[in-house]
Amino acid sequence: MQDGEFSVDPDGEGSFQVLCDMTSDGGGWTIIQKRFDGSVDFNRSWTDYKDGFGEFDSEFWLGLNKIHRLTSNETNTLKIDLTSFATEYKHASYSSFGVGDETSNFILIAKNYVGNSGDSLKLHDGMMFTTRDNDNDRSGWRNCAKAFTGGWWFHDCHSSNLNGIYHNGHYSTAEGDRDGVVWEAWKGQQESLKETVMRIRPSNF
Q: What does the record list as coiled-coil region(s) (predicted)?
């Protein structure tokens, strides 16, 4: 089976389109996030992150509601591919991944890390999703999505944010300058990555 768009209805609540990767690492993956050129603005509202934005042939975010529906009935594996502007490649996988529904503020489950990137989701496991207009993070004095841009499962605030500003490899040592596409365990918080792909499939695939 070839990569491409498919219609799915994981819970009987109505079908929607997804982009599937049927070739990488055995196939069966649904891509939930993709970034590679900064063409799509990821500094979005709660509604945008809930419903999804972008296009499958460009950069996109599938949408929290859809990710919840895909992961609510069975345990999923999340695989994250990371590429730097120096064309270095790392990956992280979580064999227990899921996202709660909107009443939980799309709480994140991300456990059982394996990979070579370091675990930059551990801090975010169990966190609720935060956007610039819906603050659910652990910071008592700021909205992390406003401070560092992009919707994410912020704690206080982050060791990863793959929905940050696309900085074309921007690097800075300034403390406040941590708003890029970051994976701290690999490149720290000041170096913004070139490409990210987040994909999921049932863990028993």
A: none
